[in-house]
User: What shape does this take?
Amino acid sequence: MPAPSSAHGSSPRRLWPWIVALVVVAAAAGAYYYFNIYTKAPAGDGVAAPGAKGAGGKGKGGRGGDRPVPVVATAATTGDVNVYLAGLGSVTPVATVVVRSRIDGQLMRVLFKEGQAVRPGDLLAEIDSRPYEVQLATAEGQMARDQALLKNAVIDAERYRVLLAQDSIARQQVDTQEALVRQYEATVKIDQAAIDTAKLQLVYTRIVAPIGGRLGLRQVDPGNMVRSGDANGLVVITQLQPITVVFMIPEDALPPVMAKLRAGAKLTVEAYDRADKVRLASGMLLTADNQIDPATGTVKLKAQFPNADNALFPSQFANVRMLVDVKKGATLVPSAAIQRGTPGTFVYVVNPGGTVSVRKISAGPVQGAFTSIESGIAAGEVVVVDGGDRLREGARVDVAGREAGGKGGFRKGGAGKGGAGPAGEGKGGGGAPASPASQDGSPAKGGGAPQGGDASKGPGAATEQGGASSPGGQGGGFQSLTPEERAKRWAEINARIDRGEFGEEIKKLHEEERKQKMRELRQKREAAGGGKGAQ
Assistant: This one.
């Protein structure tokens, strides 16, 4: 029997062959991955093997850091930006009246319906008028009696004056009679006032609407006794047309608003729903409060709205936007392109060589999906809209989702200026295959001389100067125009929109919303016309 020590000593020696075998297998797998997968790029994806020249450009190649990052980019444009002041407000009616009875009595009839729209003077209810008719008759009888006494006193006074002239009576008796005449005259005036009061009470038995507006819920039913001191009254009338919205803005924003008001400018105010998505009404700024709330640092403003469609309701919450200025010819980029980080506020600008650079900007007012740029970006420069979270300074990018044309030749569906199709090599990096419109070697429909290749050299050689053909086969593109040409083109399109050639809905939109709508229409048209190529 062998010694225990020799049995335990042979166990580690048996494991060594297995450990060596595992190391060899792991090394073989790593070598296979490196030489067959990692360093080989699929055809057309724009990734070159280390030390080799890629099909899309003349770079030195490299590891994963040289691979282009797929991004979506678009060119900065110019346009007018509306500068708004936003605030939270509440709808406040111009007038609210609690209709009460002005006399005491039994409510006989109610002549209105709850929620009814009324005009000033419309009859709403009637109170029992019989007690006040009796009072009127009593006052008229009292006046008739006092008028008879007055007439008799006047006759006696005339007689006494004749007797006094004959020295038949004393002067005192004449004076007493004249005083009695004046007493009866005053009594007649009192009787007339009593008659007028009784008539007025009869008028008050008919309750009419003091203002025009919408009635609320009825507070008293017919048959009940009503009194002038009732707190709830009969019904509440609220004026809805016009109607006002009281909202607040920061005190720092007050000086430009007051300057506009002093100059007599009419500032447009728009009211939106609680979600700040649906525009409810549009009106004008009416006035500003005379003091700032020190607790909140805000000041109240009041705007008036016609409210013809009754979209605004009393005490309704509203998000308010007030147009205070319009910036003409501002540089616009999609808000999604703006990044914020250590450098501050910046965007990634796509360079003609297929790389990106960080550009610090100063952002201005926001309108819809676009932000105006005060400085840092010029119109026509291409900025990254999607995929910026994976970029760094100098990173290579593969631009997709951009319209045809534009600086640097980045395009979707064909090789532009500075790019190359599968048949050749360009300066700026791998381009996508040429559009179907140029597969036969002829220029795309729409004219324009080919650049960067001969039309007979195969796919991708013939492209429009400064941009690629659209899916429908039309050459050029809106982004390939100069800023002046783009402004002129948009003015023509805007005029057609105002004439109603694109429907009534788009006429109601703001300028940037119109542009977005026209982009959507153009994309739908291109998608529907795809594959129709050259003729």
Observations:
- The chain has a mean pLDDT of 78.
- The first helix runs from residue 4 to 38.
